[in-house]
Amino acid sequence: MNILITGGAGYIGSHVLKALLERGNDSVTVIDNFYSGSKEALITLESVGKFEFIKCDLSDTFSLREIFKTHKFDAIIHFAAFIEVFESTVKPLKYYLNNTANAANLINLAIEYGVGKFIFSSTAATYGEPESGVVSEQSPQNPINPYGKSKLMTEWILKDAAAANPNFKYGILRYFNVAGASSDGLIGQNYPNATHLIKVATQTITGKRESMSVFGTDYATKDGTCVRDYIHIEDLASAHLSVLEYLSSNDSDIFNVGYGRGFSVFEVIETAKKVSGVDFKVINASRRDGDPAVLISNADKLKTKTNWKPKKDSLELIISSALEWEKKLK
Ligand SMILES: NC(=O)c1ccc[n+]([C@@H]2O[C@H](COP(=O)([O-])OP(=O)(O)OC[C@H]3O[C@@H](n4cnc5c(N)ncnc54)[C@H](O)[C@@H]3O)[C@@H](O)[C@H]2O)c1
């Protein structure tokens, strides 16, 4: 397949790029503006396989159109977006313009240039604060921050676009909490300002932070801290390959991507201390707006409808791979 990856220099995009290069039978083009992406990751991946990189901002419709004119893409995997929930509450337009308007423009070009498959990085944040904590793809979507809303609107655009264009199929992947690094140590999460719990814990273990905060210890959970479904980046990456294959002989569909089990913030911190042997400083802070108590995926659909087989469902493995990667970063 001739595949376009947007945001391929980013954390998840680079791992999916790596998985495609290792599979070895696709022609892959990556675009990124390096807002939060890593040039080093792309340079490293040149040793894994051949791909084309084009520096381009998704808002640059003129350049984007030129790329579509000169490449005949069969599929697009769309990662490029802004991803910080708190920032989205203070700069909502920044999120709607990049995550929704730029995505709509990309979808429009995809249809105009006959691209048959579009895989979209959506998020568990589109579910908002679910009552039960465990969500299936049919659960109500009530996002409570502009980030989640910007992603949900793109889901709606994709559904309407596919309904009106029978040759255009989407695969919407709603990721849960993604963490870890590639097991061969080649790539991982580079962005120093990332707010993800396991990234922050590994930064604290390696002395890049003096301490880390736990936001809220009075939730109605087993130990008072939020519970999340942490998934290893390599299993998340392989889900994209499975859904690409699924779309070759099936209609558009939506999949949760998680393991279907949860760990509390305190459990993650305890495991990080055990895995690293470092007793780092943890500060109990007040709740942040917009954090649901529990968010766990019902991931049965991805496992039963596609050939996806998770191989790294272990919190220790996720944390140790993230830690090994963090130790390598300056
Ligand atoms: N990391 C998570 O836990 C998580 C969870 C749910 C959903 N997601 C979604 O997955 C996708 C990838 O997330 P990530 O963690 O890899 O983030 P990331 O910030 O590492 O990657 C995003 C990439 O997109 C690029 N980019 C952003 N705006 C662009 C633009 N206008 N033009 C060109 N390039 C642009 C950035 O430079 C970066 O390389 C995002 O769409 C995000 O919403 C991530």
What do you see in this structure?
The chain has 2 domains: 2-179 and 230-257, Rossmann fold, CATH 3.40.50; 197-228 and 260-328, UDP-galactose 4-epimerase, domain 1, CATH 3.90.25.10. The strands form 4 sheets. Strands 3-2-1-4-5-7-12 form a 7-stranded parallel beta sheet, with helices on both faces. It has helices at residues 11-23, 39-45, 61-70, 85-90, 92-112, 146-164, 197-205, 233-249, 265-276, 300-305, 315-328, and strands at 2-6, 27-32, 52-55, 75-78, 117-123, 134-135, 169-175, 177-179, 211-215, 227-228, 230-232, 253-257, 263-264, 281-285, 294-297. Helix 2 (39-45) links the parallel strand 2 and strand 3. The longest helix is centred in the N-terminal third of the chain and has 21 residues, at 92-112. Helix content is 41%, strand content 19%. 46% of the residues are buried. It is globular. By secondary structure, it is of the alpha/beta class. The site of nicotinamide-adenine-dinucleotide has 28 residues, from helix 1, helix 5, strand 5 and strand 8.
